[in-house]
Structure prediction request, 319 residues.
Amino acid sequence: MEEKVLTGKLYDIQGFSVQDGTGVRTTAFLKGCPLRCPWCHSPESQAFYPQLSWISMRCQGTELCKSRCLNACTKGALELGDTREDAVSGATLQMVHVKRNLCDNCGDCAEVCYPGALYICGKDYTVEELVKRLLQDKRFYERSGGGVTISGGEALSQPEFVLAVLKRLKEEGIHTALDTTGFASWETVEKVMPYVDLFLYDLKHMDSAKHKAVVAVPNEPILENARKIAAAGGKMQIRIPVIPMFNNDEENIRKTAEFCKELGDAVEVIQLLPYHNMGVTKYLRISDEPVAEATTPSDEFMKKLKRIMEEYDLPVTIH
Ligand code: SF4
Ligand code: SF4
Prediction:
């Protein structure tokens, strides 16, 4: 019997990243996440399956163009939609619209959409295919003290694939970071730990009920995994998204600081990440449902939170 080849589902690979750990890095974004953070910058990362995405500004809307995608869809999931003015010619173009309730994400329309307005988000890679791509940037990692970051979604939701990729990267002498929500079983975390040089670890709220109410999962496994990683000698960059009306009150910030203090030397730095609304337009690529928007916290407010955390003698930065 033929052996099944291990594959993972990714939605993006980005080179030259300087936000996802030390030095210049290439970040592999895995698809699928058990959390549902309303402020998610990459809503296309949440579903575990390939998804039809649509970027309105790329839609040509000419008669010839529309005939291609409309005819390609045999499920009746494409119809004529809004109009927009073409930036160059000034002509009024009628774009298409995806009826999400009828779309099964088959991708037939994306294949004939040459401008790339319709595309399938989510592609399978074998371990070797992904490692080969990541090694293309090896010279940049070596020059800058960078490496590879495995991110998501929640990468640990594809545990076998992540473990195999991390192992191969360590065989190649690559510095590895794992960007994680921490929401995984300890067995999974423990298995990948020997191959992770740095955890980029999110803390969202210290109250489990509030955590669950907003992001759909409780925080106990996340906090417990963080404690275990620290006790086992792992290194962590703690990331705290600062979300108005959710986790930005002084009480939660102090409790988060106390928890980070508990993790001791494992914490290399704490990054405070102010909310911004970059994800809002991305939701419209995969859904018609509007998402709630909040106001970006001011610099002054972020500095105040930083000062509070520094009272606990913690290394804190604002990103
Ligand atoms: S969705 Fe793609 S194929 Fe259809 S009209 Fe727009 S650009 Fe053309
Ligand atoms: S992905 Fe398939 S079902 Fe969905 S709109 Fe395109 S062709 Fe139709």
Q: What stands out?
A: The chain has a mean pLDDT of 95. The first strand starts at residue 7 and ends at 17. Residues 59-61, 65-66, 68-69, 96, 113, 115, 117-118 surround iron/sulfur cluster (ligand 1) (CB under 6 Å). Residues 10 and 221 are 25 Å apart (CA to CA).
